[in-house]
């Protein structure tokens, strides 16, 4: 039997819809639903800056790039893992996309899996991210919060998905149901190698430290791979890809000019898909 997953960030009592436009807890802490359909559950004292998380430019770059479908092989791989390797009571799962960005993955990975039904929640510390996710993906429930202090009930979530976002193993452990799963997607060794080589003299392969970080709180089940190449023939697309990576901030004017002259490039996409369960 599942609890109501969303809780009040101030008193941890369940948060329930009072009207279509408002949520409140029994102590009357009250949260209005924005016109896009999300709620902001990040207490002001947990904000480290005025606009924490990814900014508008990064969010729109992610949306533009992901909607071109370049990373869809990753989505197919994740869906297959959930469908074939995971089991859920009554073939139903409550999922949280933790650090959901503009929502593409929460929508595409965790809905419409043959044989399974789902209730999909997504959260991000960036208001721009959550606003864009809620506006577009109406069947999922989005809220602003930090993974450090999730307004999500203890043991209420059957699947936590974290893609290229910060992780907080203790908080993930608290909200995960007894038989639940955590999937953390992180950059594989050669992820975007050819793009990095346009910017840096030497390419430093990515290290996977996710299992180590998760180790005190979880049992590591497996790390699977999704590796494929994408062929980019438009400079605009390459620039969008650059803008959604941290490389953008260290690209010199000269290297940007080099990228702008790049008419045709094949880029390696290399993802680690690490899977965790509670320790026995
Ligand atoms: C690289 S983006 C990935 C977004 C999305 N998962 C995707 O792959 O498109 C990292 C995301 O983590 C969010 N983020 C950073 N710190 C966070 C925190 N403490 N709590 C929740 N989200 C956070 C950022 O705002 C950003 O949207
Ligand atoms: Zn409350």
Descriptive notes:
By secondary structure, the chain is of the alpha/beta class. The protein has one domain (about 15-280): Rossmann fold (3-Layer(aba) Sandwich), CATH 3.40.50.150. Helices cover about 30% and strands about 30% of the residues. The chain is built from 9 helices and 11 strands. It has helices at about 55-65, 70-85, 105-110, 125-135, 170-175, 195-200, 210-215, 235-245, 255-260; strands spanning about 15-20, 20-25, 30, 40, 90-100, 115-125, 140-145, 155-165, 175-185, 220-230, 265-280. Strands 4-7-6-5-8-9-11-10 form an 8-stranded mixed β-sheet, sandwiched between helices. A 3-stranded antiparallel β-sheet has the order 1-2-3, with no helix packed on it. Helix 3 (about 105-110) links the parallel strand 5 (about 90-100) and strand 6. Helix 1 crosses helix 8 and helix 2 packs across helix 3. The model has no long low-confidence stretch (mean pLDDT about 95). Bound molecules: S-adenosylmethionine and zinc ion. Zinc ion (ZN) binds next to loops.
């Amino acid at each position: 039997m599942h609890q109501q997953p969303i809780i009040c960030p101030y008193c941890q009592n369940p948060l329930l819809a009072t009207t279509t436009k408002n949520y409140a807890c029994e102590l009357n802490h009250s949260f209005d639903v924005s016109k896009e359909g999300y709620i902001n559950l990040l207490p002001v004292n947990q904000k480290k800056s005025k606009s924490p998380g990814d900014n508008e430019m990064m969010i729109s770059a992610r949306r533009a790039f992901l909607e071109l479908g370049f990373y869809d092989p990753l989505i197919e791989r994740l869906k297959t893992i959930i469908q074939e390797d995971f089991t859920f009571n009554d073939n139903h799962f409550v999922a949280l996309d933790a650090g959901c960005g503009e929502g593409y993955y929460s929508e595409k990975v965790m809905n419409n899996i043959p044989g399974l039904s789902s209730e999909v929640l997504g959260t991000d510390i960036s208001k721009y991210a959550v606003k864009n996710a809620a506006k577009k993906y109406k069947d999922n429930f989005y809220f602003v919060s930090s993974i450090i202090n999730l307004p999500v009930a203890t043991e209420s979530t059957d699947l936590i998905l974290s893609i290229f976002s910060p992780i907080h193993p203790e908080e993930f452990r608290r909200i995960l149901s007894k038989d639940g799963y955590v999937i953390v997607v992180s950059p594989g060794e050669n992820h975007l190698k050819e793009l990095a080589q346009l910017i840096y003299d030497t390419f430093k392969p990515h290290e996977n430290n996710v299992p180590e970080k998760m180790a005190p709180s979880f049992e590591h089940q497996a790390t699977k791979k999704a590796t494929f190449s994408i062929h980019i023939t438009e400079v605009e697309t390459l620039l969008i890809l650059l803008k959604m990576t941290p490389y953008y901030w260290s690209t010199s004017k000269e290297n940007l000019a080099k990228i702008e002259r790049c008419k045709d490039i094949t880029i390696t996409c290399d993802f680690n898909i690490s899977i965790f369960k509670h320790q026995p």
